[in-house]
Amino acid sequence: MFSKKMGTALALILFFMFTAVLLPTFGTRGGQEHPADGVFQVLIAPFQDGVTRISSFVSTTWTNYFALVETARENKELRREVEFLQLIAHECGETRRQNSRLKNLLGFAQDEGGKVVTALVTAEDPSDTFQAIYINRGSIHGVEPGLAVATPLGVVGRIIDVSPYQSKVLLITDPNFAMDARVARTRARGVLEGAADGPCQFKYVMQQEDVSLGDMVVTSGMDKVFPPGISVGVVSRVRKAEQGMFQGIVVTPFVDFSRLEEVLVLLNSEPPPEQEMP
C-alpha cells in the first residue's frame, strides 16, 4: 500500500508529465490562441516557477559542490607544496649551520697550524666506565692514541682508542682525564682533572696565586699533548682554605658536550707514552 507521502509524490510526477504532454497541444491554431490557454497557463504558472527555482537551486548547488571539491584538491596540493618547501628550508638551514661550524673549525685549525683531521661525533659511550664519545676518523686517517681533540670553543679531550675507521675520545669531564693548564690572566698553573659530579677540578694551584671567578683557563702546553693557549673553560668557583697549600677551584668547560657534533683531531700534537687507564 502507498503511503501518503508516496501518493503526493506520484501525483506531482503525473501532473508534470501531463503538463509536458498537453502544453504543446495548446497554443495558436490558425493564428488564434486556444480559449483554455490563458486558464491553463495561470494554473501551471506557480508550478513552473517552482520547477524553475528547484532547477536553478540544483544547478547552483551542483556547481558549488564541484567548485568546493576543486578548491579542496587545490588546498591539499598547496599544503603538500608548503610542507615540501618547509623541509627544503629546514635542510638548507641545517646545511648553513653545519657549514658555519666547519668554517670555524677550519679557521681554528689554521690558527693552530700543523695538520688536523676534521671528524664527526657518531655516538656517546653507552657504558658507565668513561665519559667518552666516538668519532668517524681512525688509524687510516692518521689518528693515534693520545692525540688532542678540540673545537673552536675549547678542549674536548684526547684519543684513547683507535680502530681503522673510528676512534674513542675521553672527555675532559671524565675523572680519568688530566692535563696541564693555566689561568690566562695571571698565568697561575695547575692540573685540570675531570670530576664525576660535573665541572672540572683545577688542582694544585697554590694559595697565594691570584685566581678569581670568571677567569679563563687555557692549556699550558707543558704536557706535550695540547698546544698552549687553547681555551678550556671559565673559573666558576674559588675556595681558599685556612689550612693547606692549594686552592679549591672549579672550572666549567666552554664546550657543551651534549651539543657536540664536529671536532678536530690535532695530528701535530705529541702523543704521550701509552699507559693503562686506572
UniProtKB/TrEMBL annotation:
Protein name per UniProt: Cell shape-determining protein MreC
Keywords, comma-separated and alphabetical: Cell shape
Coiled-coil ranges per UniProt: none
Limits of the Rod shape-determining protein MreC beta-barrel core domain: 121-266
Keyword Lyase (UniProt): no
Pfam families, A to Z: MreC
Function per UniProt: Involved in formation and maintenance of cell shape.
UniProt-listed InterPro entries: Cell/Rod_1, Cell/Rod_MreC_2, MreC, MreC_beta-barrel_core
